[in-house]
């Protein structure tokens, strides 16, 4: 469900160059002195020993999910143990318009949406002659809930002045920012359906999305306005294009015909001068048609009702501890993704502050931040952040790499502190989680936490299963629990969500209280609800978060949605899960990722990729299996720094990184590493790729090879590297 800390940059492509900066990591030891460090370590070790006799024994396992009698012939449904009835409203509000108005009245004077001041833009020339844009950003400028409500009302009236009515749709085609959110809520004040489109979407998918939904108005930034101008002749129904006011006049395209091009502020001012009464939606009205980035083919538009969005937001609020007006959320993920949309809806309902940033300005060492100035996290000092597993993996790799580079006492102290904290989390000493924790935080981890502002108290994660090692690493180094969730666009991000007192890893929690989850046997794949010691099967989600289906695609809707005899709506996810005895779900496979080889063996591509990604040489990997062969192969994007360090030590000479990737010695080195990782997790021989191809360029959402949540787009990857894959089987 929840999606990342990503430093996406086409300018600097290596894994190491996208890491969080830790260049001053060694300074964490300054001020302690040798005696201070040794004394603190002795004290840290002594306290648990002295008090261990008082705080011992493991807690009894808590029952988090229980059977629910909701009918249906397939499988046994599980519900959240804390709720006997589904949560489908937020303090009585059942629509996004009602939720927005409710929060704006309740928190009228509190700060709500924050945007950083742009002080200057510099152009830097790199060693290779390429130019890079660097931003000097100032402090956050805030608008209160009351001020935002006025802007939303004005924008809504401005849309009516442009000619919008209940039969027309508005598309938002832009990166996340305050105006995105204001546009979104403005549409709901007039019960207009919003079409959300990823800013990284290609021309064909963009045209398809706008034409299929017959959009009348597109709201965008200047960059996307240029893209729209290129395809404007193919857009059948678009009459208006509204661009954000920070666009430079000279950058605005002049070749858009048969379309009104107008600034955001002009629409607001028009609405202010011509106010109209709101036309508010009801629970079952379609709020959003969300186009997925699509791992295969053209994107599909998922129809979300107001009730769907509110139900998930309300359910998440019951799980996240003490979320309220004191919390600050750093928003930098795409609002066109259901995860960020729901995360910000949760913050709205709780009265929290939302500060907007970007993936390229997130930290002090991010690629678009001018040297010596603060990144978004340092300026905002958020208490809550969201991420996807792929990005948390990169955070972990970045920290460990810097620790290795420092070596000596720094590395020894870090490893020792980490091992102590790990033991305390997985053990039973109460004092290890309090007194000793505080000591290690001061000695070792405080400086690391400053990377993200130093105040993070919890993180939200989703989009794919998070590895146990990475989850523990973030728990310890960032000092925050991770709420790992599971859901899909088709369930409005609602599914399962881990509870914050659950310290286990590799699981996604019990069902959210907005719905139920059941497992349905998949005999062909060998997963059944009769399996021991835990039932396994396809994950099927039912309840208030399950969406209305795919826009203009009844056949696909009927394929994966179903309504039971009690009127309960269910979605068949295609994911394979198992329920632990305490009612907590674990995702273990995906039906589409399982391929049957020539001799009948089944290979789970996702499982193999997750296992092999542990190699230090792997930045990204796609395993490919051909049913007409007895082995699988893989495309590997190598970690540039790791491979170049190996080449230096091995005396391998080359001019370009692409040349190194083609060298037989480099391919053999990476393949040996993959074999080692495969053996460590006991993969069968046929599961480990027999041949690999090293791909020098990383896969980003901009390249169209991964989704915005960084899931592999297998069909696009197979098409792009068709020749390379064929050669691997020769």
Automatic annotation (TrEMBL):
<keyword id="KW-0587">Phenylpropanoid metabolism</keyword>
<dbReference type="InterPro" id="IPR000873">
    <property type="entry name" value="AMP-dep_synth/lig_dom"/>
</dbReference>
<keyword id="KW-0436">Ligase</keyword>
<comment type="pathway">
    <text>Phytoalexin biosynthesis; 3,4',5-trihydroxystilbene biosynthesis; 3,4',5-trihydroxystilbene from trans-4-coumarate: step 1/2.</text>
</comment>
<keyword id="KW-1133">Transmembrane helix</keyword>
<dbReference type="Pfam" id="PF00501">
    <property type="entry name" value="AMP-binding"/>
</dbReference>
<dbReference type="GO" id="GO:0004467">
    <property type="term" value="F:long-chain fatty acid-CoA ligase activity"/>
</dbReference>
<protein>
    <submittedName>
        <fullName>Ligase</fullName>
    </submittedName>
</protein>
<dbReference type="GO" id="GO:0016020">
    <property type="term" value="C:membrane"/>
</dbReference>
<dbReference type="GO" id="GO:0005783">
    <property type="term" value="C:endoplasmic reticulum"/>
</dbReference>
<feature type="domain" description="AMP-dependent synthetase/ligase">
    <location>
        <begin position="136"/>
        <end position="551"/>
    </location>
</feature>
<keyword id="KW-0472">Membrane</keyword>
<dbReference type="InterPro" id="IPR045851">
    <property type="entry name" value="AMP-bd_C_sf"/>
</dbReference>
<dbReference type="GO" id="GO:0009698">
    <property type="term" value="P:phenylpropanoid metabolic process"/>
</dbReference>
<dbReference type="InterPro" id="IPR020845">
    <property type="entry name" value="AMP-binding_CS"/>
</dbReference>
<feature type="transmembrane region" description="Helical">
    <location>
        <begin position="33"/>
        <end position="55"/>
    </location>
</feature>
<keyword id="KW-0812">Transmembrane</keyword>
<dbReference type="InterPro" id="IPR042099">
    <property type="entry name" value="ANL_N_sf"/>
</dbReference>
């Amino acid at each position: 469900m929840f999606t990342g800390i990503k430093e996406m940059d086409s300018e600097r492509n290596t894994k190491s160059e996208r890491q969080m900066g830790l260049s001053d990591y060694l300074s964490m030891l300054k001020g302690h002195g040798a005696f201070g460090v040794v004394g603190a370590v002795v004290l840290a070790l002594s306290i648990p020993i002295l008090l261990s006799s008082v705080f011992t024994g493991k807690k009894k396992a808590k029952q988090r999910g229980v059977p629910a009698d909701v009918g249906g012939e397939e499988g046994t449904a599980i519900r959240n143990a804390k709720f006997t009835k589904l949560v489908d409203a937020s303090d009585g509000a059942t629509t996004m318009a009602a939720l927005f108005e409710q929060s704006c009245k309740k928190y009228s004077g509190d700060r709500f949406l924050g945007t950083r001041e742009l002080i200057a833009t510099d152009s830097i020339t790199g060693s290779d002659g390429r130019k890079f844009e660097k931003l000097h950003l100032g402090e956050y400028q805030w608008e209160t809930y009351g001020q935002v409500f006025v802007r939303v009302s004005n924008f809504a009236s401005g849309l009516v002045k442009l000619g919008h009515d209940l039969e027309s749709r508005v598309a938002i085609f832009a990166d996340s920012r305050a105006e995105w959110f204001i546009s979104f809520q403005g549409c709901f004040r007039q019960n207009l359906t919003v079409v959300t489109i990823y800013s990284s979407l290609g021309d064909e998918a963009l045209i398809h999305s706008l034409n299929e939904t017959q959009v009348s108005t597109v709201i965008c930034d200047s960059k996307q306005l240029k893209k729209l101008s290129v395809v404007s002749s193919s857009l059948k129904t678009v009459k208006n294009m509204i661009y954000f006011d920070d666009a430079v006049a000279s950058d605005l395209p002049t070749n858009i015909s048969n379309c009104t091009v107008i600034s955001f502020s002009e629409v607001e001012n028009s609405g202010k001068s011509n106010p109209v009464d709101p036309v508010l939606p009801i629970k079952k009205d379609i709020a959003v048609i969300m186009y997925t980035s699509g791992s295969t083919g053209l994107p599909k538009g998922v129809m979300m009702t107001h009730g769907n969005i509110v139900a998930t937001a309300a359910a998440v609020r019951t799980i996240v501890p003490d979320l309220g007006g004191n919390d600050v959320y750093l928003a930098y993920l795409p609002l066109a993704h259901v995860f960020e949309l729901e995360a910000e809806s949760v913050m709205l309902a709780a009265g929290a502050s939302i500060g907007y940033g970007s993936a390229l300005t997130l930290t002090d060492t991010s690629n678009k931040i001018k040297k010596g100035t603060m990144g978004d996290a340092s300026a905002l000092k958020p208490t809550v952040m969201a991420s996807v597993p792929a990005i948390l993996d990169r955070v972990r790799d970045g920290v460990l790499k810097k620790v290795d580079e420092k070596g000596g006492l720094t590395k020894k102290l870090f490893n020792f502190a980490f091992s102590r904290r790990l033991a305390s989390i997985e053990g039973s000493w109460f004092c290890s989680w309090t007194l000793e924790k505080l000591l290690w935080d001061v000695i070792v981890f405080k400086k690391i936490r400053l990377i993200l502002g130093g105040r993070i108290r919890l993180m939200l994660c989703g989009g794919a299963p998070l590895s146990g090692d990475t989850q523990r690493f973030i728990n310890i180094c960032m000092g925050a629990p991770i709420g790992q969730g599971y859901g899909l666009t088709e369930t409005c991000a609602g599914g399962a969500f881990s509870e914050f007192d659950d310290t286990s890893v590799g699981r996604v929690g019990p069902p959210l209280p907005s719905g139920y989850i059941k497992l349905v046997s998949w005999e062909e794949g060998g997963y059944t609800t009769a399996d021991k010691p835990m039932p396994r099967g396809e994950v099927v989600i039912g309840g208030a978060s399950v969406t209305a289906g795919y826009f203009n695609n009844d056949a696909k809707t009927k394929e994966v949605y179903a309504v039971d005899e009690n009127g309960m709506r269910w979605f068949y996810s295609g994911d394979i899960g198992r329920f632990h005895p305490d009612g907590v779900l674990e995702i273990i496979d995906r039906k589409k990722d399982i391929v049957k080889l020539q001799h009948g063996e089944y290979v789970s591509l996702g499982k193999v990729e997750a296992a092999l990604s542990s190699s230090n040489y792997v930045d990204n990997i796609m395993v490919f299996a051909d049913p007409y062969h007895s082995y699988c192969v893989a495309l590997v994007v190598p970690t540039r720094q790791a491979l170049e360090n190996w080449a230096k030590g091995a005396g391998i000479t080359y001019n370009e990184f692409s040349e190194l990737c083609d060298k037989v010695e480099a391919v053999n080195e990476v393949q040996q590493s993959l074999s080692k990782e495969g053996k460590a997790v006991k993969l069968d021989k046929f599961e480990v790729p027999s041949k690999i191809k090293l791909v020098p360029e990383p896969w980003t959402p901009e390249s169209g090879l991964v989704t915005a949540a960084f899931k592999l787009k297998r069909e696009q990857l197979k098409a792009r590297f068709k020749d390379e894959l064929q050669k691997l089987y020769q």
